[in-house]
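2024-03-11 09:14:02 INFO queue: dequeued item Transcriptional regulator, TetR family, putative, len=191
2024-03-11 09:14:02 INFO validating residues
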Amino acid sequence: MKPKDEAKDKAIKQATLDLVFEKGMAGVKMSEVAKKASIGTGSLYTYYKDKEALIETLYQDIEKQGTEILFKSISPDLPYPIKVKKVCFNYMTYLIKHQKEVVFKEQYQRSPFCYHTEEALSMDEKAARLIALINEGKNQHYLKQIPDLEMMLALDGIIKSIIHHYQMARQPVTQSIKERIFSICWDSLKA
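2024-03-11 09:14:37 INFO prediction written
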């Protein structure tokens, strides 16, 4: 079997990401992906057996990239509040610089492709690392003793909502805005 061309695979994934951003996940057809990626539809099916396989692979790639960005520059020896601040700032940066990926993830998580189970959450590297960070804060009495998932959802909701507001208003998210967002997050979760 002929090895797959990485450049074509990258073009397929980028075309899919662009189309989901433009049309929504449900509206994307494999023929459109092939056309946008400048490959034949038959060639597309040698890379992915169907739309579900393509969407799932792209989601996993985006999750891996997001996890790497989220935990960038987080070392175990940092003081706990600094670790949390860095994770929050990294997340803000991700939301600002990776809007297509954010839209893709939101649509994926509301689609039939996504399976919301405790088992799926436990297998998620990002969730596992966030839960470990949250539990470190609880053990050191920095954070409230509330369920991990609720804490993750609260942080996600606060950060995503405020960043989205500034994006919709076409206003830049300045350092002082990021500091305020972090302050809101920290005040809502600290013990």
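2024-03-11 09:14:37 INFO annotate: The domain at 62-189 is CATH 1.10.357.10 (Tetracycline Repressor; domain 2).
2024-03-11 09:14:38 INFO item closed
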